[in-house]
Design goal:
Blueprint lengths: L1 H17 L1 E2 L2 H15 L3 H6 L1 E9 L2 E3 L1 H7 L6 E14 L3 E14 L3 E16 L2 E11 L21 H13 L7 E5 L1 H4 L3 H5 L5 E4 L5 H6 L1 H5 L5 E5 L2 H5 L4 H18 L4 E5 L8 H4 L7 H18 L2 E3 L26 H12 L5
Parallel strand pairs: 2-7, 8-9, 8-10, 10-11, 11-12
Antiparallel strand pairs: 1-4, 2-3, 4-5, 5-6, 6-7
Helix pairs in contact: 11-13
Length: 357
């Protein structure tokens, strides 16, 4: 026993002697991770962490997928993270660090919230370099945080619950083959007869009437599981009707794209413009009628982020609009919102410009 103790002490002290201060890359990894959180950039979260990465925060356990999902449901905000008192050690294959993290949130133009944390992290040396393996978060002081009144969670008003559940139950019963063309969106997608339009019996319809970008984010994993060869994302009009800001709508769509990029890198991704409505929409859909200017703003944001997010933008809106910006009755159902056969035919013309077979 005494010999074992001596050997243990020698081994332990030898490990300490070989340890060195944490390399600068540790702080860069932590900074990059929280920059990914601030910008809802799933690629950054994945790039700096090990496959078994976890965060322990106030009794909760997170991984990158749950972190990504959790940050989707907030009004657009700006946040900057400031790391101080960064200390740590590393040996040949592992390391650890402690630091103080200050997060400064800005909601809108005036509301500000500051949160302070003590955090600890562990690191592993991998074939691709150093990665974060774990982060442990504790508040410097758990004061009551008064979220400003302008702050909203838009996931509380998403869709028609009964129809959403029925459609998802139907999807769960279907067993489409992988590597198919998938259409993902709201009623404009649901009402498209894609098998007939594409002349492809394998085409998959994942549209749900009344769904918005939050509901789509919730079911995005089901779409990714199909590993589609091409994915058409159509979304935004229901968010507009529910008062979701254009910046958040575009950010949600961009988040969908980058998540697919990481989880299904072989998928070609196309994002459809938000379509206008016309005066007939006032009867059945008053919440979205008269909001074509907002739809145009979302479309401008979708165009602006297309290259950085990595998708092809399909501007169907300009093709189905009149000179005054309304949905042309030649391409519309009598309800002033949905497309008729001629409208879907225009969509198909755009698809044929980008061969997927």
């Amino acid at each position: 026993m005494r010999l074992f103790f001596i050997l243990f002490v020698c081994f332990y002290m030898g490990g300490l002697l070989r340890a060195s201060p944490a390399p600068p890359v540790f702080q860069l990894l932590i900074t990059t991770y929280f920059d990914g959180v601030a910008h809802k950039d799933f690629r950054k979260l994945q790039a700096v962490t090990t496959p078994d990465f976890v965060i322990y925060e106030f009794g909760k356990k997170w991984n990158n997928d749950s972190v990504f999902k959790n940050i989707q449901y907030h009004e657009p905000f700006n946040v900057t993270f400031k790391l101080t008192d960064f200390n740590g050690f590393a040996d040949a294959m592992s390391g650890d660090a402690t630091y103080h993290s200050q997060a400064d949130f800005e909601f809108g133009d005036t509301d500000k919230v500051q949160l302070n944390f003590y955090e600890a992290a562990t690191f592993r040396k991998t074939a691709a370099g150093w990665k974060i393996n774990m982060i442990q978060v504790s508040a410097v002081a758990p004061p009551e945080v008064n979220i400003p009144s302008s702050y909203r969670k838009y996931d509380t008003v998403r869709y028609i619950p009964e129809h959403y559940k029925e459609r998802r139950a139907l999807f769960a019963q279907e067993r489409p083959s992988p590597n198919q063309v998938v259409f993902f969106g709201n009623s404009i997608t649901e009402f498209g007869d894609w098998k007939r339009l594409l002349k492809d019996s394998g085409a998959v319809n994942r549209g749900i009437a009344a769904d918005n970008t939050f509901g789509m984010l919730d079911r995005l994993a089901d779409v990714i599981a199909l590993q589609p060869k091409a994915l058409y994302i159509e979304a935004g009009i229901n968010d507009i009707g529910q008062g979701v800001p254009p910046a958040l709508i575009a950010a949600n769509i961009g988040s969908m794209v980058q998540y697919v990029r990481v989880k299904s890198p072989g998928t070609k991704i196309y994002v459809l413009s938000v379509l206008p409505t016309n005066t007939h929409a006032q009867t059945d859909y008053p919440e979205i009628a008269g909001k074509n200017a907002t739809a145009l703003e979302v479309d401008r944001l979708l165009v602006a982020q297309a290259m950085s997010r990595g998708y092809t933008y399909l501007d169907l809106a300009s093709k189905v609009a009149t000179a005054t910006g309304d949905l042309d009755e030649r391409y519309a159902q009598p309800d002033g919102l949905h497309l008729n056969d001629a409208g879907y035919a225009l969509w198909m013309e755009m698809i044929r410009q980008f061969p997927i077979y």
